[in-house]
């Protein structure tokens, strides 16, 4: 891939195209991209592709879009600079130098002048559009029907109309340097460049909306995808979504508590007060409501078959502890181990790593639900009361050992609710060594939990069981 252009300019133009294709490239990434390409040189297209891909592509599903944009960039004619475009229109080197000096002087004396970025277009205009102020202007845009309004706002923000006024002043200075006729011809070209820049702004708005819609669809797809099918980048997306969901739950819980503290209007007490004062002033009496936060006891099967689901449930529970008066968590395979203190004292990643590494219980054994449930009955059940919701996450695969289903009767008799979250589809509950068809009738509620959406539904259910 021989190219006489400077590496910086090649990368600048390529990053411009990648941004147009929907990639969010921060300044730090752009700097890393320049360093990476300089390290490998421009001699091999494959080397350049690999260097940029390592910096820009964060998700496996974006690789095809990156490759298509990369190939399109090197298949096209190089994007010419303003000076090259003017030379192609027949302007002399002296005339171009005169314009360059005037634009440099304007940029120095009037930093907020709009004419420079607009007539240069390309990467310089793109940087202007990527500035935080421009990006924030589009935050509320949700529908194609709004695009015209936001195009108008952004055109005003980048100075399209100011640039047209600046061109009149520029023409006077150009006329002094090269004569009125050549100045008129040059300004006509610059007016065309400003109009093309306005089209670039419209394209930026439409591309932003399309990317937002595509990201929303991808987000929905990821949240509805089975946990077992997620790759590393998608797992991170789901984890971010879980954190956002927990924040929403916390916000809703804070509102509920404020209302509970305020209490409901007590009509009888209000009327009694009014009779004593003749109704002036009328003061509302309220009946205080006491609604204790529930307690949560969580049992998670961390065997290989359900490990991915258990990880997300444990992380959600860790993040949502303030929604409950008390939270106790346990992991199990063939033995039951409590992780309450571990999750209270360690960062979530450290706690999860220890829970899955065998530091709490042996994790290489076959599941033994009967043994685990009996251990729970002996060690934990005495502390379960009518404020406690017990949640069990597991596939109910017993390896043809004792099921311990009778323990579920004892749990349900003492607890406020017994909820089972099963990562297997309901049609599989009566197959092989699954005891789910016998566990399910003994529970208050049984839910299939195979995706982040299912997990959100389960979390909402737990908050309603009060």
CATH top level assignment of the largest domain:
Alpha Beta
Q: Estimate the mean pLDDT confidence.
A: 80
DSSP helix count? 21
Helicity, in percent? Answer: 55-70%
Strand order of the largest sheet: 5-4-3-6-7-8
How many domains, as an integer?
4
β-strand percent reads: 5-15%
CATH fold naming of the largest domain: Rossmann fold
CATH architecture of the largest domain: 3-Layer(aba) Sandwich
Short description:
This protein has 466 residues and is an alpha/beta fold. Helices cover 61% and strands 8% of the residues.
Structure description:
- This protein is an alpha/beta fold and about 475 residues long.
- The protein folds into 4 domains: about 70 residues; about 140 residues, no CATH class; about 55 residues, no CATH class; about 170 residues, 3-Layer(aba) Sandwich (Rossmann fold), CATH 3.40.50.
- It contains 21 helices and 8 strands.
- The radius of gyration is 32 Å and the shape is elongated.
- It starts with 6 loop residues before the first helix and ends with a helix.
- The N terminus is likely disordered.
Task: Chart the SSEs and their pairings.
Elements (H helix, E strand, L loop, with lengths): L6 H14 L6 H14 L4 H12 L6 H13 L6 H7 L4 H17 L5 H6 L1 H9 L1 H6 L9 H12 L1 H19 L1 H45 L7 H31 L1 E2 L1 H11 L8 E2 L7 E7 L5 H13 L6 E7 L3 E3 L1 H6 L2 H10 L11 H11 L8 E6 L11 H10 L2 E6 L13 H4 L5 E4 L3 H13 L2
Helix pairs in contact: 1-2, 2-3, 6-11, 10-12, 11-12, 13-15, 18-19
């Amino acid at each position: 891939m021989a190219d006489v252009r400077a590496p910086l300019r090649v990368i600048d133009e390529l990053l411009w195209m990648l941004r147009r294709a929907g990639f969010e490239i921060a300044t730090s990434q752009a700097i890393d991209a320049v360093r990476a390409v300089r390290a490998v040189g421009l001699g091999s297209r494959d080397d350049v592709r690999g260097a940029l891909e390592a910096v820009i592509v964060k998700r496996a599903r974006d690789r095809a879009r990156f490759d298509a944009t990369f190939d399109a960039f090197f298949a096209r004619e190089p994007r010419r600079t303003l000076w090259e475009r003017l030379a192609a229109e027949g302007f002399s080197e002296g005339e171009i130098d005169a314009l360059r000096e005037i634009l440099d002087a304007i940029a120095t004396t009037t930093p907020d002048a709009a004419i420079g970025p607009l007539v240069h277009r390309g990467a310089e205009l793109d940087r202007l559009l990527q500035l935080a102020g421009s990006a924030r202007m589009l935050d509320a845009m949700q529908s194609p029907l709004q695009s015209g309004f936001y195009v108008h706002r952004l055109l005003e923000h980048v100075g399209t109309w100011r640039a047209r006024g600046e061109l009149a002043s520029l023409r006077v200075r150009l006329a002094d340097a090269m004569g009125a006729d050549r100045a008129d011809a040059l300004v006509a070209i610059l007016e065309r460049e400003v109009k093309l820049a306005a089209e670039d702004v419209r394209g930026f708005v439409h591309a932003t909306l399309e990317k937002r819609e595509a990201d929303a669809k991808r987000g929905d797809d990821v949240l509805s995808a089975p946990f077992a099918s997620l790759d590393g980048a998608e797992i991170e997306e789901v984890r971010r979504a879980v954190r956002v969901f927990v924040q929403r739950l916390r916000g809703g819980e804070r509102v509920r508590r404020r209302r509970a503290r305020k209490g409901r209007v007590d009509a009888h007490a209000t009327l009694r007060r009014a009779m004593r004062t003749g109704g002036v002033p009328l003061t509302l009496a309220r009946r205080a409501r006491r609604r204790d936060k529930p307690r949560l006891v969580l049992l998670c099967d961390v065997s290989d078959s359900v490990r991915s689901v258990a990880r997300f449930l444990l992380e959600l529970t860790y993040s949502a502890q303030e929604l409950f008066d008390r939270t106790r968590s346990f992991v199990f395979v063939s033995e039951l181990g409590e992780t309450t203190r571990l999750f209270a004292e360690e960062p979530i990643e450290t706690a999860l790593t220890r829970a899955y590494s065998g530091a709490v219980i042996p994790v290489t054994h076959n599941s033994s639900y009967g043994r685990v449930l009996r251990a729970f009955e002996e060690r934990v059940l005495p502390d379960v009361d009518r404020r406690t919701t017990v949640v069990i996450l597991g596939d109910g695969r017993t390896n043809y050992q004792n099921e311990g289903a009778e323990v579920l009767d004892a749990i349900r008799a003492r607890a406020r609710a017994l909820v089972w979250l099963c990562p297997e589809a309901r049609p599989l509950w009566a197959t092989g060594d699954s005891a789910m068809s016998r566990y399910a009738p003994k529970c208050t509620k049984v839910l299939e939990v195979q995706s982040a959406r299912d997990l959100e539904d389960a979390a909402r259910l737990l908050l309603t069981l009060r």
